[in-house]
Input
Amino acid sequence: MKLIWLTAILAAAALAAPASDISGTWKVRYAGPPGTAPKTVGSIVLDLKVSGDEVTGMVRIGAWPGDAAIADGKIEGDRIKFTATGTRSSTSGIPACAFEGKVQGNEMLVTMTVINNPGGPLSDRRKYEFKGQRTSD
Output
């Protein structure tokens, strides 16, 4: 009986645990297979702010599409999810990207999926993997 109560208490504590503190500046670099890096994005800088389960801030998505405000940002435990639309235009327009990340201590793994960029240098619907860490603020 004690084991059942202990299990229930631990499960409740896990559900009530606060989201990871991911606020701050993170720099991640392309970590996919060699020769498959996106043309204009070797690294990404994420400036994240957390309030409850919401994530806001800015993302610098390489040289192009550049600076982008975070939209629809959510955090759940050690995982984040948001979208961002760049500010630098080109002949193919401005791409929108979806981001999903996982924080492990001071390390972050990020997947960027281009969700809108017809004919641009970033392949539409392609997933790009990045890995990096928190920087000194």
Summary: Residues 5 and 11 are 10 Å apart (CA to CA). Confidence is low (pLDDT under 50) at residues 5-18. The first helix runs from residue 2 to 16. The beta strands are 24-30, 43-51, 54-61, 66-76, 79-85, 96-104, 107-116, 127-134.
